[in-house]
UniProtKB/TrEMBL annotation:
NCBIfam families: GPPMT_Stmyces. Residues 99-195 form the Methyltransferase type domain. Transmembrane segments: none annotated. One of its GO terms (molecular function) is S-adenosylmethionine-dependent methyltransferase activity. InterPro entries: Erg6_SMT_methyltransf, GPPMT_Stmyces, Methyltransf_11, SAM-dependent_MTases_sf. This is SAM-dependent methlyltransferase. Keywords: Transferase. Pfam families: Methyltransf_11 (PF08241).
Length: 289
């Protein structure tokens, strides 16, 4: 009688890679005023930039309240960006479920819930961000529909086909797009919508410029070429329905931020990269087929 040797199970794959661990550690300890003071204006804490024409009159008036006016205007511009992304999520019903992937401190999830009245799951690899965002959901009285979880966007563990829509707002540069879009193709129901707003380097410029490399180093990220988004979407059943170049629309935000107390030292780099054509700020919306 022969016996079969017991099967030795493989070691479980790490939840996140060593690189992602370094990113999580950064965001677990990050307390940058540019990510906090703007959210204090109305309780919607965003981790992205703004779009639209700035109201330059905020630079006028009493000097002692000048910075307060600038911060309020910067927040208005970043809220306009969040609303623009939500505009491209398509028709969302109150009983639909959305995924805010790389949710930061949760502002985008709250925007989507306020707009559609829907269920939103926000995910981040930063336990500090998740705890902060869940506290904000409670303060806004929507924690029955908006929940934040400590998860890896490359391997979420959510059920297949469980989401009507998914978005990334300036977070795709932290992951491999081939892995990311494969996971989203699994998570989205057929006909579901994916939206990203992202910085990418311009393929026609050639390789990443000095400014793009500086931004990578500043944020511990790896900015993808524009072409990579469309290549990996095509490989993973995501068909673009809308592409909007927001590069010109984000420049006023950066010019105004450079005049505020919230400067981080990266403002001139962004402005140079946008203006020399090496860096672009895009919205891409795609349907899952």
């Amino acid at each position: 009688m022969t016996t079969t040797a017991p099967r030795v199970s493989a070691a479980p794959a790490p939840t996140i890679s060593p690189y992602q661990e370094s990113v999580a550690d950064y965001w677990n300890h990050e307390k940058n005023p540019v990510n906090l003071r703007l959210g204090e204006v109305d309780g919607f804490y965003h981790h992205h930039y703004g779009i639209g024409d700035a109201d330059w009159s905020v630079l006028d008036g009493p000097e002692d309240t000048r910075d307060e006016r600038i911060i309020a205007e910067l927040h208005r511009l970043e809220c306009a960006q969040a609303d623009f992304l939500a505009d491209h999520l398509g028709a969302v019903a109150a009983d639909d479920r959305l995924l805010d992937s790389g949710c930061g401190r949760g502002g985008g999830s709250l925007v989507a819930n306020k707009r559609f009245g829907c269920h939103v799951d926000g995910i981040s690899i930063s336990k500090t961000q998740v705890a902060f965002a869940n506290e904000q959901a409670k303060k806004h009285g929507v924690d029955d529909k908006v929940r934040f979880r400590l998860k890896n966007m490359l391997d979420t563990g959510f059920e297949t086909g469980s989401f009507r829509g998914i978005w990334n707002n300036e977070s795709t540069m932290y992951v491999d797009l081939s892995l990311l879009f494969a996971e989203y193709a699994r998570l989205l129901a057929r006909g579901g919508r994916y939206v990203t707003i992202t910085g990418c380097y311009n393929d026609t410029y050639g390789l990443p410029s000095r400014e793009v490399s500086t931004i990578n180093a500043h944020y511990i990220c790896d900015i993808h070429p524009r072409s990579a988004y469309f290549k990996e979407m095509a490989n993973n059943r995501l068909v673009p329905i809308s592409v909007v170049d927001l590069t010109a629309a984000t420049i006023p935000y950066w010019e105004l931020r450079a005049k505020s107390s919230l400067v981080t030292g990266i403002e001139d780099t962004f402005l140079t990269a946008y203006k020399n054509g090496s860096f672009q700020y895009l919205l891409i919306a795609a349907d899952r087929i």
